[in-house]
Design a protein that fits this description.
The protein is of the alpha/beta class. The protein has one domain (about 5-175): Trna Endonuclease, Chain: A, domain 1 (3-Layer(aba) Sandwich). It has helices spanning about 5-15, 75-85, 95-100, 100-115, 135-140, 150-160, 170-180; strands spanning about 20-25, 35-45, 55-60, 65, 120-125, 125-130, 145-150. The strands form 2 sheets. The protein has a 5-stranded mixed sheet. It is globular, with a radius of gyration of 18 Å.
């Protein structure tokens, strides 16, 4: 079953011309005994038209929550040294970011299966909840990982919606909200 934020990302990418599959197992492992990697979103767009500066071929990780520096081992260790803070780490939530060899295996597997050499990682999340927002964005950019928030996705879907009927529940809901926004009271 596809998680709600994965479905939101899938709809956004499909509305922008990508062919998308969700929760795809690929031929990559962190170790011999580990299960195969699961990529939340694989999206392929033919042509040269980019959306929100996203790459044409995407290996996407979807997080339903705000991220912070505690998930990124290299960055977190550097910031801990600099600012001397203590907190629980979350490195295991971001294996593909923290283990470059694992990330390379995932990209190689996608290249082999789909025959495109230019897959890029995209982190889709609710936002960045940290005073280190600039450092996180710089770190992801250095690692060649794109970032797109659910807020940006929702804004795009609301601003670029169509009034046409669709059988997609989320797009129907967006259409109904837009048609009735002035009448809704809570």
């Amino acid at each position: 079953m596809v998680e709600a934020t994965e479905e939101l990302v899938k709809i956004f990418l499909e509305q922008n011309g990508y062919l998308v599959t969700a929760s795809k197992r690929v031929n990559a492992k962190t170790s011999d005994n580990a299960p195969r990697a699961e990529v939340d979103i694989i999206a392929i767009k033919i042509g040269e038209d980019k959306v929100n500066n996203l790459p044409l071929r995407i290996a996407g990780e979807v997080k339903s929550y705000n991220i912070d520096q505690r998930g990124f081992e290299e960055l977190d260790k550097k910031l801990r040294e600099k600012d001397n803070y203590k907190s629980r780490t979350e490195y295991s939530r971001y294996k593909w970011i923290n283990k470059k060899d694992y990330r390379d295996k995932i990209l190689a597997s996608l290249k082999n299966e789909y025959h495109y050499p230019d897959f890029k990682f995209v982190l889709f999340c609710s936002g960045i909840k940290s005073k280190y927002e600039r450092e996180i964005k710089d770190y992801l950019k250095k690692e060649d990982i794109f970032l797109l928030t659910h807020r940006e996705i929702l804004k795009w879907l609301f601003m670029n919606r169509t009034n046409e009927y669709t059988d997609n529940q989320i797009l129907q809901l967006i259409r109904l909200i837009n048609q009735n926004a002035s009448k809704i009271e809570f």
